[in-house]
Design goal:
By secondary structure, this protein is of the alpha/beta class. Helices cover about 45% and strands about 20% of the residues. The protein has helices at about 1-5, 10-15, 20-30, 50-60, 70-75, 110-120, 140-150, 155-170, 170-180, 190-200, 230-250; strands spanning about 40-45, 60-65, 85, 95-105, 125-135, 200-210, 210-220. Strands 3-2-1-4-5-7-6 form a 7-stranded mixed β-sheet, with helices on both faces.
């Protein structure tokens, strides 16, 4: 995981501020009230530099944190000394957590569907799972960079990311994260919704549309894929068509 280690040594990664913005982000993307987190047991899977770990702590949760990157874990230990190095694919079923979050991690694994199962297996009955996964309809802006990436030198990669940050916003670390991982899978919301259903989750809430940000409640019942709302496919097609038009306009076509 040398690539991820390198990513977390970047100045932009270190300068991520642990402040009210991180708490507001968590509340916005989880869709849960501030008071809900107090006294809850939470798991931050793929914790990075610990910004969600810190936000959960500020809201009163007891947090376990792990990441596959040694550098990331060292950073997270600044806010959670018990953070540890671990591969989520090695998780065994342990339904001990009220709240599990895996933010921007599953799509970087070799087998995202299996990774989702591993992540989902940590949520207790009545608990919440929050994931962020790349949306298939929004990845066009990264396609060229991912194709070029293997043939670029380190300095060229840095320059390429800086150019994109200046043109499109964001920072060096965020663009590096978009281009550098070996795996960059993307999915439609209906696909991820089906994963939730297959793992026994219901009461799904989609909290953002650029990425597939979904929160689900574990019902403690057997896997069930029946009765998935048919409008999901239509909604996927609708958003894909809008994103395609935006993409064409952005390119001046």
């Amino acid at each position: 995981m040398a690539g991820f280690d390198l990513e977390w040594t970047m100045k932009d990664a270190e300068s991520i501020k642990l402040n009210q913005d991180r708490i507001d982000e968590l509340l916005r993307f989880s869709g849960l009230p501030r008071d809900w987190f107090r006294g809850k047991k939470a798991l931050d899977i793929g914790c990075g530099v610990g910004r969600l770990t810190w936000a959960l702590q500020q809201l009163g949760a007891e947090v376990d944190s792990f990441d596959i990157s040694q550098v990331a874990v060292e950073r997270t230990k600044r806010v959670n000394p018990n953070a540890y190095i671990f591969d989520l694919m090695d998780l065994k079923e342990n339904r001990a957590y009220d709240f599990v979050v895996s933010w921007g991690v599953i799509h970087h694994t070799e087998n995202p569907r299996l990774a989702f199962t591993r992540v989902a297996s940590q949520v207790k009955a009545g608990g919440y799972l929050l994931v962020m996964i790349y949306h298939r309809g929004t990845q066009w802006r990264y396609e060229k960079g991912r194709k070029l990436w293997p043939d670029l030198s380190h300095e060229q990669r840095l320059a390429y990311c800086r150019q994109h940050a200046e043109r499109f916003g964001g920072n060096l670390q965020e663009w590096w994260d978009a281009f550098s991982p070996r795996y960059n899978w993307s999915f439609l919301p209906s696909e991820v919704v089906r994963w939730f259903a297959e793992e026994g989750f219901g009461s799904l809430v989609m909290t953002d549309r650029f990425s597939v940000n979904i929160r689900g409640t574990y019902g403690g019942h057997p896997r069930n894929t029946s009765g998935l709302p048919s409008f999901l496919l239509l909604r996927d097609l609708y958003w894909l068509s809008r994103l395609w038009v935006r993409h064409k306009l952005g390119r001046g076509e």
